[in-house]
Amino acid sequence: MKFITEKNYKRLMIIPIIMLVIFLFLILVYPGVQQGIDLKGGNQLILRYDEKRDFQGLDQELLNNFSVMEAKVSETVSPTEYGLLIEYSHQPDIEGVRAQKESLDYLNSNIEDLKSQAKSLLDPLLEKGFLTSANVNEIDIINNKDDLKTYVNESIVLANDNFNSEVIDFIKGYLNLKEDQNVRTQTREVSATLGDDFVKSSVTVGLFAFIFLVLVILFFFKEIVPSGLIIFSAIFDVLAGLAGMALLGLSLSLTTIPALLMLVGYCVDTNILLSTRLLKQRKGDVFSAANNSMSTGLTMTFTTLATVVVMMVISYFTQMYVILEIATILFFGLIGDLFSTWCFNGPVLIRYILHKNK
Amino acid sequence: MKSLIKKPIIIFWAICLIIAIFLLSTKGLQYGVDFSGGTAFSIVLEEPVPAEDISRVTSVISRRLDWAGLKDAKVNAAGNQYITAQLAESDPEEISKLRTNLLRQGKFEAILDGEVLFVGEEIRSIQKDPAKGYGTSVVDNSGAARWVLPFMLSPEAANRFAEMTFHKCTPIGYGTQVEYDCEKTYFFIDRPIDSIIIIDNETYFAEREVPSAPELLQSDYLKIEEILDQVRTKYYVVDSNLTTEQLTEITADLNVYNKAIVSSNVTNSIKEQLRDLGYKVTIKEKSKENIPWVWEATGLKSVISLTDSVTNMDAPTLDSPRFQRFNNLTITGSGETQSQAKERLEEIVVILESGSLPIAIESISTETISPYLGDSFLKNSLLIGLFALLTVAIVLFFRYKLLSLTIPILIADLSEITLLLAALSLISYRLDLASVAGVLAIIGTAVDHKIIITDELIKGKKDETDSNESPIAKIKKAFFVIFASAATIMATMLPIILFSTGLSKLVGFAITIILGSLVGIFISRPAYAEFAKYATTKAKKKKAK
Fold first, then answer.
1. Which residue positions in chain B have pLDDT lower than 50?
2. pLDDT tens-digit series, residues B476-533
3. Do residues A207 and A306 both lie within one domain?
């Protein structure tokens, strides 16, 4: 097989460069990669049921009826069941109260003042019907600050739970699922604080993963150009994964972030193989070494691609989203890797070796 | 074949595999809520907790979630600001209750004669220092043991303690050996002082006398009234209907109380009546076999007798110069064995500490999966694994057209998954969907690396330049690639373990990938290399003949 030849190897490099531009456009401009509820905070509800239901307009209804900022509804179908994946943001009134609860001055106010402050703090929740007047009247029997603090915290949690069960009730009503005993549910709630912390630690993790990657590659290859090429390929693959996410509307989450990081190690083995073979090639020409590596590398990538496709197909039909998302990202990364390895890393490294041997 | 079996790496591989299979068949795998169904809580604390307090935080949280230990709560600290808890509970109403329980500080009170002796906040410290007497010791040949728990009260509480316990022992017996019979103190968590208690006849008669230490085989008995009197609330023993007197009294009670704790056998009509009157009715069921209902309903956790050493028996009056106030007190008790004594001691520590978390909870996030769903996730994961391996086999067979290479790759892959699962079982990791994705991803790299080894070995056939290289040199070359790529994978996964505070899902994925890579590069891939070397040289020899 002769894919990389003396004639074409410089031209090959153009393909990944064009792809890079497309990836960046998809990721940064349109449609863009979104942050999931893991990072933004919010609620997720997965419903599975046996008969098809009409869900058109549900997202708009959620926005109108619950004054949430965002609501997203998507359907999933499998041979055995129907399902809806619903994501909606926190209720703004409840979040507002949550943010304001810090303003209660427990140290300097007396208990009666605090009680009236707490009452007016919780008032919006009563108005919106997330708390009942019985809930709020419980405040009257409180006689110390600790209990009051606990009471305020509990009330917010209660309001939030009431909000969520109202939403779920509404959705079930909308889909005519109220009587259906066979509905399977999966719920998830990420608090805004936890989301913020996830973002922070994801940035740290990403940064260190990059530093460790550079150190490991430099340790094994010791030469700047070949190491730089492998690192470039790794980044290219991650961008391919991100572009895939943008295309399919997958959002950054606790599932997709590790998958993106893993992509680095997952795809980089063909690059390492290629670079090792080319650099250790003493006799013979670099082109045949590159093409020989390619036959091994393609076997590797296609075998992995085949397993990843199996993961995607089965997890789609069985609605195991965690696995589906990871497999999808690996799929795009592997496709990207075909180009970054054989059209970029290979040709550039050949140029470098030819140049060095002159 | 014989020469192959004698190779150290093959022997090592076989031993590891046997251990792994043994481990998986005895200890087995543990499943997280993704597979077993249930709820995972992610709790963020307001600020990081000092390392020495983190175990206290987890024990308080696990008590708040599951005091009776019925729901198999697993609480772990992730870093010093995050706590994750998994619980076999997926009913939304229960989850909502648990969230409130998590926020609520259990209020510890030590009660004597229905009056508060001291409360949780007044305990300055619990001295877990053997030098100060903390711990257990065997007292006689029968193995019976004694436990001692020293703790320190705040000055005001110490004063109150000294005054309230003054002369609360009565001497019994005559002669030189004076013994004392002392009054009991009652340890409560969340004593329901704002509730009336409604007990049905049946429960009342069953518990007229209850053991004062239900966890011990031998125990004194207490009258149910003695316990109820400590709560200082009103209680009613009811038949299937309220009597007229009861109804008038209960109606009048509304001026003081607004909640009612009701035993589960109380009739619905009474429950309705209470609700109509305006009571918030809580139905308490007896949840644990050996704990009396009245203990659970009142929040009684332990009954501890005073000892004559703290009751100032030798001081005639409170003003006497011999009257002492003790800041440092000890609680002692016994157990039939030393381990039982230790258990008891730890339980009392938890009760005393349950009052407070050192740092308040900032937020709670939850993820709930119904058990039915979890079960199907598990089956489908297995399905994906099987199909993935099958696909690998088909692709490889088309590529090499040699069963003698394809089958060993599959066997090596299977062994790699087995070893990886055994490693996860060894560290008691609770398998979740993310770690299953990790296992599946490892199949991919494992196959890749075996392709590198195989191609390096058979390359000589086509490529003249390399044909003179010995198989050992070829394998060395292949392993350079394998080590470099495994090192890269681990390098990108390691920061997740090091820096992702509380991101339990990420961590599970990363741990799986790293363990899988390690098992792969040190056990199964070298073993496969040995096998492939044998298979390819044999194939070459055949050709040469």
1. 462-465
2. 889 999 999 999 999 999 998 888 765 567 788 899 999 999 999 999 999 999 988 8
3. yes
Instruction: Give the pairing of strands B280-284 and B259-263.
Output: parallel
> Hey, is A287 helix, strand or coil?
helix
Residues of B in contact with A168 (CB under 8 A): 92
Residue B408: asked if its preceding bond is cis (omega within 30°), the reply is no
Residue B539 CA to residue B338 CA, distance in Å, equals 67
Residues A257, A150, single domain; the answer is no
Residue B425 sits in the same domain as residue B498 = yes
Q: Report the CATH number that the domain containing residue B434 is assigned in CATH.
A: 1.20.1640.10
Q: What confidence score (pLDDT) does residue A308 get?
A: 92
A283–B465 CB contact, under 8 Å: yes
Cα(A3)–Cα(A10) distance, integer angstroms: 12
Where do runs of H (alpha helix) occur along chain A?
9-12, 14-24, 37-40, 58-66, 92-100, 111-127, 133-137, 145-174, 192-221, 224-248, 256-280, 286-317, 321-339, 346-357
Q: Which residue of B has its CA nearest to A210?
A: B492
Q: Count of domains in chain A?
A: 3
Q: What is the pLDDT of residue B30?
A: 87
CA angle B504, A85, A191 (to 5 degrees): 40
Structurally, chain B folds into a number of domains equal to: 3
Under the phi-then-psi rule, with left for phi > 0, alpha for psi from -120 to 50, and beta for the rest, what region is B467? alpha
What's residue B387's pLDDT? 92
Of the residues A106, A184, A296, A334, the best mutation for testing chain B's interface (the one with the most B CB atoms within 10 Å of its CB) is: A296
- State the smallest CA–CA distance between residue B90 and chain A in angstroms: 9
**B282 plus B377 within the same structural domain:** no
A215-258 tens-digit pLDDT: 999 999 999 999 999 999 999 999 999 999 999 989 998 888 88
pTM for the full predicted model: 0.76
Q: Specify whether A220 is located in the same domain as A343.
A: yes
Instruction: Give the CA radius of gyration of chain A.
Output: 27
| Same domain? B25 vs B136 | no
Is A263 in the same domain as A318?
yes
CA–CA gap between residue A329 and residue A238 (Å, rounded): 9
Find the closest chain A residue to B496 by CA distance: A205
Residue ranges making up the domain that contains B311:
108-358
| Ranges of chain A whose pLDDT falls below 70 | 1, 282-284
Per the rule left: phi > 0, alpha: psi between -120 and 50, beta: everything else, A222 is left
Cβ atoms < 10 Å from Cβ of B237: 15
Q: Give the domain CATH number at A62.
A: 3.30.70.600
- If asked whether residues A319 and A220 sit together in one domain, one would say yes
* CB neighbour list of residue A85: distance below 8 Å, 6 or more residues apart: A44, A45, A46, A73, A74, A75, A76, A321
- CA-based nearest residue to A319, from B379, B444, B39: B379
A261 shares a domain with A152: no
d(CA A12, CA A339): 9
Q: Which residues of B touch A326 (CB under 8 A)?
A: 434, 437, 441
Note whether A171 and A246 are same-domain residues. no
Spell out which residues of chain A touch residue B494, defining contact as CB-CB under 8 Å. 208-209, 212
Which residue bears the tokens 């997330």?
A130
Domain that holds residue A20: 9-37+192-357
In this structure, the answer to whether residues B100 and B112 fall within a common structural domain is: no
Q: Give the pLDDT of residue A275.
A: 93
Question: Cβ of B321: how many Cβ atoms within 10 Å?
Answer: 6
